[in-house]
Write a structure and sequence with these properties.
The chain is an alpha+beta fold. The chain has 3 domains: 2-164 and 217-335, Alpha/Beta hydrolase fold, catalytic domain (Rossmann fold); 165-216 and 554-590 and 593-675, no CATH class; 344-532, Galactose-binding domain-like (Jelly Rolls, Sandwich), CATH 2.60.120. Helix content is 16%, strand content 38%. The chain is built from 11 helices and 35 strands. A 10-stranded mixed sheet has the order 2-3-5-4-6-7-10-11-12-13, sandwiched between helices. Strands 28, 29, 30, 31, 32, 33, 34 and 35 form an 8-stranded antiparallel sheet that branches. Strands 14, 15, 16, 19, 22, 25 and 26 form a 7-stranded antiparallel sheet that branches.
Length: 675
């Protein structure tokens, strides 16, 4: 990334600003704005998230907010109530109180003498979610938003459930917030009340995983904050951004197709990161793109930003399987509008272990049956690649060994797809509750299988996510499984593979008991591909600039970190496990003299094909120290299940120095309901 020092405006930074909310709570903000904005007011841009603006996101924030401020904006990075140095307690995602707070913060920004009354919202993940949600509430000052790595549907396309299946990342993400909610404010800013604020959080934040497990269907809990319920409520322009290695690519396509307001879509090869920090690469000059967006919608500059194609996407070339890529080879392609009229749906029947060619029909007696071992899915990687390597899916051949596989013939010519692949299946199962995982792989002549995209479906949800229906064993059902949207090129000589399994653990929590699946050949078992013809390249988009940003704040690595992703199999006791360690070590934030320690460990285990042995455990250690002040917390969450219930156990231990000052224990049993 090129560090920019010659910005159009000199920038002042107000490191700690308290924004009053009508119920008496004060929210902590860091604000960057042009030095002369007191005399020449500018639009304001808000990023409103719970990840501690003074330390955990400080380095990232220092790259992009001063950059935008230097281009004529007042940029506010505000901690949600109960996070960072903000007062109050944070008790869940996207609550009504959070959205009311956001509206009040926007109104406060618009009223400041250095603001001209126009505002925007931006954010990645949580900040992208609430930007969409607040836009649907139509606050008076809001003119446009940038929403990265987010979704319009909190149930069917978020970290909690996918296709009605409980995601392993639901546990992982809940544990992350369990740890973050246990962290104290900084005494250097909030003074002597830090301990009271800290203990209010420890006592009151709650165990969010318990809540999420009690809402196993698409009910009113998930509909709140899902702007898909009424996308017409979003009237401001939206820039929607994600990456193929992220978990949120699908929402970009939906927003482009359904929003009535102006919308631009951008999809690169990236994981869960802003595109100027994008991994896998190539990263792009995303901050320049945002400045152009804000200039047009917040300042009225006629800069042609809306003359760009509706969608710009990175068409990925074929690669060998790896858990990490420095760069994904490919090129930028575009669609003038979405859905694109240039795409051609190519439908191919499946049967006899093959994706059949044009005009071929399967043998009617070629019924495929399968019961996947629990180990199917151990090479799946994360549902969402939060931090890029090494959490991408590895060679799928071992998972294919526990799957029903349909291979095409070697492709006679190059094929490119853009959008969502759909797999239709006529099937039956022998249990009343069952799930399937469906994968599309790119298979080299040497047999290496790289997962291109996948989808999950809880078969009890085949008619919808609000009122699941238990299955009748042996009865034939027709289902359609949408796979995550993607742009991918398959070279001539490679094969396409559709793999279907009844387990994909630990990416998804297994069914209550082993399932035998039968798939019947015929017109209702096929794959539908959104093929992009070569002639569609007539409108190749303009290239992006190189990544730019302001210099990150200085940090020093005090203690080294550690990254691990280990699979183990005990062939005596038949116990298997996936152990993931993300240890960032101890980092000093040099400008404020604060040392921060973060370590997370996740362990997913099972014994043979004993479905009652499935277990997920996460442990987080967080620490903060300055001089003779030090605090730390350890949070632990364990989730197990039987055929009828989920069993949840969690603990928090909080320390000042070596002295434990608080302990809290959570235990619950939650009935499974068609999950």
């Amino acid at each position: 990334m090129r560090t920019v020092t010659d910005l159009p405006n000199d920038v002042r930074e107000d490191e700690y600003v308290q924004i009053p909310i009508s119920d008496g709570v004060r929210l902590a903000a860091r604000i960057w704005r042009p030095v002369d904005s007191d005399d020449r007011p500018v639009p304001a841009v808000l990023e409103f998230i719970p990840y501690r603006r003074r330390d955990l996101t400080a380095q990232r924030d220092s790259v992009h907010h001063p950059y935008m401020a230097g281009h004529g904006y007042a940029c506010a990075r505000v901690d949600l109530r109960g996070s960072g140095d903000s007062e109050g307690v944070l008790t869940d995602e996207y609550l009504e109180r959070e959205l009311l707070d956001a509206e009040e913060v926007l109104a406060w920004l618009a009223e400041q003498p250095w603001c001209d009354g126009r505002t925007g919202m931006m954010g990645i993940s949580w900040g992208g979610f609430n930007a969409l949600q607040v836009a649907a509430r139509r606050p008076e000052s809001l003119r446009a938003i940038v929403s990265a790595c987010s979704t319009d549907d909190r149930y069917s396309d978020d970290v909690h459930y996918m296709g009605g299946c409980l995601l392993g990342d639901n546990l992982s993400w809940a544990s992350t917030m369990f740890a973050y909610n246990s962290c104290p404010p900084d005494p250097e800013l909030v003074g002597g009340k830090w301990r009271k604020m800290w203990h209010e959080r420890l006592e009151g934040s709650g165990l969010w995983l318990d809540t999420w497990l009690r809402h196993q269907h698409r009910d009113e809990y998930w509909k709140h904050g899902s702007v898909a319920e009424d996308l017409d409520a979003v009237e401001v322009p939206v820039m929607a951004v994600s990456g193929w290695a992220d978990g949120y690519s699908n929402s970009v396509f939906r927003l482009l197709a359904r929003l009535r307001s102006p919308c631009l879509g951008l999809l690169g090869p990236w994981s869960h990161k802003y595109p100027h920090l994008g991994q896998p690469g190539p990263a792009i000059g995303f901050l320049q793109e945002m400045v152009r967006w804000w200039d047009h919608w917040l300042k009225g500059v006629d800069n042609g930003v809306m003359e760009a194609p509706a969608l710009r996407a990175w068409m990925q070339e074929s690669v060998t399987p790896s858990t990490a890529y420095e760069k994904r080879p490919g090129r930028w392609v575009s669609a003038r509008r979405w859905p694109s009229p240039d795409l051609i749906e190519v439908s191919r029947a499946m049967g006899s272990g093959r994706v059949l060619g044009e005009g071929e029909s399967p043998q009617p007696e070629s019924v495929s049956t399968l019961t996947s071992p629990l180990s199917t899915g151990q090479h799946a990687g994360k549902w969402c690649s939060y931090n890029a390597p090494p959490d991408l899916p590895y060679d799928q051949r071992e998972d294919d060994g526990g799957s029903m596989v349909f291979d095409s013939r070697p492709l006679p010519e190059r094929v490119e797809i853009l959008g969502s692949v759909m797999v239709d299946l006529e099937l039956s199962v022998d249990r009343p509750v069952a799930m399937i995982a469906v994968r599309l792989c790119d298979v080299t002549p040497q047999g290496e299988a790289t997962r291109v995209t996948y989808g999950l479906l809880n078969l009890t949800h085949a008619r919808g996510h609000e009122a699941p229906e238990r299955l009748e064993p042996g009865r034939r059902y027709r289902v359609s499984v949408p796979l995550n949207g993607v742009a991918q090129a398959f070279p001539a000589g490679n094969r396409m593979r559709i793999a279907v399994s009844t387990s994909y653990w630990p990416l998804a929590w297994p069914s209550p008991e082993p399932v035998t699946l039968a798939v019947y050949p015929g017109e209702h078992t096929r794959v539908r591909l959104p093929v992009r013809p070569a002639e569609a390249d007539d409108g190749v988009p303009e290239p992006f600039g190189e990544p730019e940003g302001t210099a990150p704040i200085p940090t020093t690595q005090i203690e080294p970190g550690e990254q691990r992703w280990d699979l183990s199999h005990d062939l005596v006791r038949y116990k298997a496990s996936l152990n993931v360690v993300k240890d960032l070590g101890t980092v000093s934030f040099d400008d404020i003299g604060l040392e921060v320690t973060r370590r997370a460990e996740e362990d997913y285990s099972w014994v043979g094909n004993d479905y009652d042995s499935v277990r997920g455990e996460t442990v987080w250690n967080m620490g903060f120290a300055r001089g003779d002040w030090s605090v730390s917390t350890t949070t632990r969450t364990v989730l197990t299940s039987t055929a009828t219930d989920f069993h949840l156990h969690a603990t928090i231990d909080a320390y000042e120095g070596e002295r434990r000052v608080a302990t809290k224990i959570y235990t619950s049993v939650i009935p499974r309901d068609c999950v």
